[in-house]
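**User:**
Everyone, produce one record:

**Assistant:**
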Amino acid sequence: MTYFKKIIRFALPYKKFGILNIICNIFYALFSALSFVALIPMLDVLFPKEKSVIVEEPIYGGLSTLKDYFKDYLAWRIQEYSLDDPSKALIIVISLVIILFLLKNVFRYMANFFITFLKNGVLKDLRNEVYEKIVDLPVSFFSEKRKGDVMARIGTDVLEIQHSFLSILELIVREPLTIIFTIAMMLFISAELTLFVFIFIPISGFIISRIGKSLKKKSDRVQKEQGTFLSILEETLGGLKIIKGFNAEKIFGGKFKKSTYFFYKYSNSLYNRQNLASPTSEFLGIVVIAILLWYGGRMVLIDGTLDGSDFIAYMGLAYNILTPAKAMSKASYGVKKGNAAAERVLEILETESTIQDLPNAEEKASFDKNIEINNISFKYENEWVLKDFQLEIPKGQTVAFVGPSGSGKSTIANLLTRFYDVNEGAIKIDGNDIKDITLASLRGLLGLVTQDSILFNDTVRGNLHVAKESATDEEMIAALKVANAWEFVKELEHGLDTNIGDSGSKLSGGQKQRLSIARAVLKNPPIMILDEATSALDTESERLVQDALEKMMQNRTSVVIAHRLSTIQNADNIVVLSKGKIVEQGKHEELLAQKGVYHSLVEMQSLD
């Protein structure tokens, strides 16, 4: 129940619905028991033991005679209404039974009505908090997790919590109360018979609990495998062109079928164990009923200590215990399944973000002097990507980083934006360590254009609003013009309100990149980071994008991660990296004159 206690906090905002549900369940349980007790006078009317008339209203003689007083009073009251016509008595008792069953089901509906708001409210809040946590966690967290597994946690695992844990909120009130009220009525009818029943209930409970012992482990395997095949599906959709282009359908189909086979195997094991609960509890219940029939039948037929009508009503009450008992046994299995789901969801919620604001972090609204990279060292896992790296980027300058793959160029962009934190050293803006600046204000100073144009399945307007939610149409059009994007956007079917498809699939590569640049321009940050923004483009698209980039970088501090060296010839400082260290730096002409690494890189690209 550890995880249940952690999840229950999400129910607190909806506690009024929980309280109303409890009140309705109390009345449901009460009328559920009374509806069977009401069968006694009906049976007495149908099968009278003798043609006796109660002349006077019975007198209450204390708690020890409560049962007889209740029966005699009810019989006298019915007799008063039906002296001239016995069928009236039947109508009265049948009406009483109908009213009690009606009230029972009205309160059952009301209980379900109120619990619905609580269950769905918790589902909403839990998903929202998981989503907020996913957005808050550092990029490094998701390099270790499959996307499909994360999607499974926020989707099916959260839903499993609703089906299992939140159902318990109802069961821990309704079913136990039903059992308590029913047992109270059973004791009222026959204490001896009820005590006899209690001998067998613990035995049944022990057998049922043994069945569900391994459910959490089995459920955990099912949910993990579900995350695996969702990951394969997500990778398939993302890489469909490559899969088709390389005729790799069979490879990925094999992976998916292998995962769904394990899911099939684990699910069969889980659900067959779970399905054993209901028939087992029902069979054990019938065994108890059979023993009751034998023992109670002796009390009616041989000992004469129990009336036939009382015994029939008693059997109805005994059977009435079976349904809530069965529900509670199923709920115990639900807890074990819910535990596995909650463990996976809480793993995300309880993961501490390694990148977050310090308690004394300050807001920074402007960029005034420079960016200092002071002796930083960084590694993703075991090997150092950057070691004792030092550089100053004055305000207003364009600094380009070039070098072979794996030299650490993109890592610098990741560290400036605090997607990762340095292991040693510090990065400072205007003398302030970026760790001492709030993440929101730091990233407010930065604009980012990546190699892969990250666009969303929304309209052009919606994608631009990511940069500035309050932007007017005039501001958007101005940004699009700077990015050389307005020429194609105005030709789209609905202009700014045209949906560009999943990841901008309705646009060409150059159009997507220009729209990404327009988004960065609209944000209008003082520092722009361009991470290989033209490396994936054809020559014509590169020309348009490069022109857009040059217009965007005017009067702005720019950090350019470059693959194509032709795009950074006008940079104020070109920094050449190799294995995480600076091997050369200077302007384009100066570096060419040195005939060093940069010259070799330019020569190689000119031969391409």
